[in-house]
Amino acid sequence: MKLSTEILILGGGATGLGAGWDAALRGFKTLVLEKGDLAHGTSGRYHGLLHSGGRYVIRDPQSARECAEENQRLRRLMPSAIEDTGGFFVSTPHDPADYADQFIEAARQCQVPFTEIKISEALQREPLLNPKISRAIHVNDASCDSFDALHLLANGVRAAGGEVYLRHRVDQILKDGDRVVGVAGENLATGERFTIYCDIILNCSGAWAGHIASLAGCELKVTAGKGVMIAMNSRLVNTVINRLKPPSDGDIIVPVGTVSVIGTTDTAVPSPDKYSIEDWEIDLMMNEGEQLIPSFKNFRALRAWAGVRPLYDHDTSKDSRVMTRAHSLVDHESRDGVNGLLSMVGGKFTTFRLMAEQLVDKACEVLKTDRKCLTASNILEPSGTKLHSLTKRLADIEHQSPISNPQSPTICECELVTREQIETHLKESRSPILNDLRRDLRLGMGPCQSGFCAYRAAGIIHETLNLSATQSNAQLLQFLQERWKGERPVMWGHSLHSLELNLNIYKTILGVDSLKTEQEVEVYPTERTS
Amino acid sequence: MAYDLIVIGCGLSGLYAGALAARRGKKVLLLARGVGSTHIGAGTIDVVNGDKPTLSLLTRSKSHPYGIIGSQTLKDAVDQFKTICAEHSYPLHGEVGKNFKLPTAVGSTRHACLIPETMLAGNLSRKEDLALANIHGFRDFNAHLAISTLRVQSLIPNLQVIDLHLPSAPFHRDSYATDLAHLFDKPDYRAEVIALWKPWLKDSPKRIGIPAILGLDHSLEAKGHLESELGIELFEIPILPPSVPGMRLFNLLRDDFQNHGGRFIMGPTVTGEIEGGRVVSASADMNGHIKEYKAEQYILACGGFLNGGIIGEMDGTVRESIFNLPIASDRPEGFRKPFGSRGEWTNEVFLASHPYAKFGLSVDKNLRPIDANGKVIAENLFAVGSVLAGADRVNEGSREGIELGTAWKVISG
Question: ipTM score of the complex?
Fold first, then answer.
């Protein structure tokens, strides 16, 4: 496959899709390449917080200001992906006593909106909160479903005339002298090679940005900072809860749909693809959670995961950095003498739109054209089945007549995913990967962690996509293993019951361990069209 | 009122021990918080995955429950269980040392030592044509996937899927196996099924597999009725919980226990008290109302991790939930630091063998729990079933064999 485009964006996370949306709206011929599925990388592995800016008022005022502005903007642009939970910063007995006053002063200076509220009001709104808190400050934090947000962005790219190709891995950057002219790589779905020519490459590959830059012969030091998060099996709070202390491990709880997520840690890891979650990291966060919510440890931890933050090592001798400490735009022409390659590194989910704007502004400069950014006012509309809330799904099921529809039984009972939703989605995506169904429909994300739905869904992909038995069973085994990866770090108490139940189902009753399949096969019946 | 025996737990091992004791004229009380693994199992008696040598490997192991009770006891236990089932007109087929090879709901094969008559025709050693029924709208069984997988194994030359409907069910929700089983117990419902299915089965293979929904109380009657009217041989395939064939075994043993005078209390959380080397009482806490029961002897049949009999805590401790007895593992450190860190309890591969599976109670040759020094903890306390250390039941396919064997050992001595 050979293609050409004007702006080629590498990385389908929030920054890359944001840049794709921005560039396409400015009228550029735009293509975004992602080596995995949407939300495969760091954007799909964070705690779901849309920052109010409060977290940064003391240490990083510019980030705080940017977050506060982007927070308001994103609430307008993608309302369907954001839940306005609000947030509290609270002082527990373990937090420095003078931090609250420092916080208030700094927030005022950064123009981050806040209101100090009475402890009694905070406790009334969040009854599980530690009654020993001494200060409570309300901010505009919100909960943002990044799977939904990225789907909105990908649709936004396409609606503006751009393209998003998933499972396209770039392994070569093509140069003509000092000029970057395109990329070559492999479509991981079909095994087909591709070559794409372009006027400029925007490297938005986050923790993988160093690798991409190295393909063009540039050295870009991006360290992967691992952050561990735990999803608790219930919505313990309806408001984002932060600690009034300098940022540290396990200082935030975010309500996300039916669960709450506690985060996070920060440990440098050698590679963004290889890291493990250690017992001590889990213990640390469970203990910190106990400070915010007494008896936190008595609730069931559902699963744990880690995301890798791209931490950029500034090399001031070479670097022409333009932006804030939080994210950095690297022009490889002035820095390394390589034309036509820009890298955006660092940053945070909340400011992805701003990062994209700055990046595409720079691309316009390089391409010597003057086109205004339009993303600040374009609203991203939800499409079809992808956005959901559990309550809406419940209402849909309850209001259908008859209630039990033999055409479309509920396949995932935890997240209320029906057969019809799965079939519709499969016909569109053509992806046989159960894990993609999970990201798109939330299949298998609830308390049973796929114990009941994995078998049912494997049968449906087998029928709907006409897969062979070997392919279907490989998908089933892969999905079970993928779910296990996240459950294993929190294997105690109720989770051990759940593991035994799932082993009993899949080994004792279904005998899946005796299935002969080629592990690791990711086979597509037809090419996945974007 | 004092009992001869108090049994704690109503899984297969607790019920079997209770029924055996009651049959011998003992005054037995059975206390249980909830049902055991019968309701989530396959409804077969699994003794071991694999052949005779695999079994004798386990019966020769000193740490495995089979090794402690010996192969003859295992055989006697299984035979006696067959006798009881036959008395209740729910005969089981098979014998220790042999296995049936049966199809699963994904189309792989599983082994079982004893199987009910409702599964007999599924025997994959028979080569006759076979069809599986895909029941429209029933999400817990996918015949298309199962047949495709069976074809890959080419055990049987002619395999087919038949798409069948059920008469519309009166449920205002998706149906579970138990919902349908209650319907199949009713002759009128079966007559409707027969009328609906008959035209579709005219040219089909004569051996037809359906999900395990063939009635709870009258399964053999249901099987016979459908077979004679439709001119086919019918067999059940175990599916996702709740397990209808497992519940039949539970109901059968519970009835047998109660028919022989046993008293069954379900619901309370039970704790036991040990004083001076003897269990002195068992306390049943029913929503805060606590009642104390006393007996000469006690059998602990509380199950393992699956049932809440053994609990693994976040801080890395592992405990038994009724008497707080010391838990052992087969790690070389033994009792001192038996569990390693939490991360060592499990394997990184989901379907592999997980070390925690062998955690449990260490017992003497009479199945009395012992401490780190090998000393019996309470002379009148016996442990049976999945709470015992040394077996990986899921991997060995030994869950029911251990349950029956150890229960029989305690009662028959």
Answer: 0.96
